[in-house]
Amino acid sequence: MRVVHGADEARRSLLRRRPLGETVLPERIRAKNAALFGADLPVEQQVRRIIDDVRRDGDAALARYTKAFTGADYDRFEVGRDEIAAARGEVDPPLAEALRQAAEHIRAYHELQREHSSRSFSRDGVGMQVRAIDRVGMYVPTSPGAVYPSSVLMTAIPAKVAGVRELVMMSPAGADGRVAPLKIVAAEIAGVDRIFRAGGAEGIAALAYGTQTVPRVDKIVGPGNIFVTVAKREVFGSVGIDALYGPSETIVIADERADPMLAAADLLAQAEHDELATPVLLTTSQEMAEAVGREVDRQLPLLERERIARASFDARGGAAVVASVEEAVALANEYAPEHLCLLVRGAAAVAKSVRNAGAIFVGDDAPESLGDYTAGPSHVMPTSGAARYASPLGVPDFLKVTSVVAVDAARLREAGPAAARIARAEGFTAHARSIELRLEGGEPASG
Q1: Catalytic residue flag (residue 339)
Q2: Mean pLDDT in the chain?
Q3: Active site residue 338
Q4: Mean pLDDT over residues 258-278, rounded?
Q5: Range of the domain at 375
């Protein structure tokens, strides 16, 4: 594991961000897509072509791109009741029970979130109504060797707690045309209403504009690969989106008393997600940096996804030795990571100085992986520095506010003259007249 020294070098190397547009696709994907589109197009142009085709041709384009990208040849996109029933029988009962337990923790957390942050109110005739979005589409990705039932729970449960009327799940199917049974069972536990099989930009386009079988949604949520992310950006405005999610990020801050084994394990837990993941250690101790590096090397061969984790460490991982825990926190606040793990003395006090992070994992007994599965908060969190202004996916993402103005005559007499005066100053005479007619019994003021 490479080690750099000082905050400035950490900023220049380990903590330097790469914009979405600089993403370099693997050569095999570039070659495949060049054959499909007739040229090696930038990702943005490929996504626009896919979206335009799905918007125009609906299911036919969805089938065409599904076959091109996955090899699966099918035209039935909705997962039916028979397939859902079959999925139950294919998932081991203890694993299904673990999903139910995780769902209970996630639901309890988001029930608290709804109770404390999303209430309608009215005061002096002015207030707001909070309503759930009618129909939401949630995208759940697939990657080699991973099916992400946890992402189903973490995305669907906040939506259902919020009161979304119809929750539609879109997920890639395998070459056999089937959505993974584990995903289907998780969707059933979480309360998903309908499941469709399609992936990538074509799946996002189908949700955004609707097809002959896929209903058009009001908002699209959930993470995905670069094509999903760019597609969400392209369709925003026609539908709402939650955020643009990039590869996983973890910063571990460790002082000299931390356990190197735990620090390495926390870094590897995110490194195994994706070759583009960013696992970074910020430590006050050269000895700790070296010890964690040795632990990373020792633990890597124990992982099923060793190749992926090793690639992410080689490309974007490493350690920076800094002057103090305070300096490490300052760097973390600048970087605004998705996950921030505090393996330091007085971790609870240190956590209070964190301003920018998707989630903070406080102390040795709070591993980031618990947050991925059963702690309660959604693991769908801001990446790419968005934690400076954005929040983890939660109940508020599925709610919308409607302002309500129900003033009586007394309040109109109190507030109306000033409103009319401002309207006339802006040159909006009709605005002013609509108030003045009420104030003066049908006779508008002159001037």
Answers
A1: yes
A2: 93
A3: yes
A4: 94
A5: 3-17+246-389
